[in-house]
Design goal:
alpha/beta; Rossmann fold; five-stranded mixed sheet; 5 helices; globular; disordered C terminus
Amino acid sequence: MHTLLESLEKRSPAAPALLGLCGKPASYQDLLQQVHRTAVWLASKGIGRGDRVAIVMPDGPEMASLFLGVCSVTTCAPLNPAYKVNEFDFYLSDLEPKLVIVDSSIESAVRSAALARKIEVVELHSHASDQAGSFQLGPSTQGNGRFRFSE
């Protein structure tokens, strides 16, 4: 997937790659930079080939760019934000992810399920006025604050 993105970026770096309802479009160059930042961030957390990362996001450009960034480093497991605690518990026990990334703007039972399994939860932060697919990753602001780290 990363090779395909690099090829598209070399051919048409300024062409729109992601569109959003509110933010400005992201070019292939912008998307590739976001994918690279995500890959570097995951690598700094010790996440690499053979690991699994669960992502809990609504559909949209941030989900797309996060998925591409995660799968450029490791196995990405998108999970439905509407799952209940017992469903998340089942999937987390089956997947054994090293990390769960959840959109900071949604209420999701994944936080409780991950906390019970001692799986680190990281929040994705984005703003409607930002470029489509643009985000930052940071510690969860919900829960007991047990998992703290710096970017």
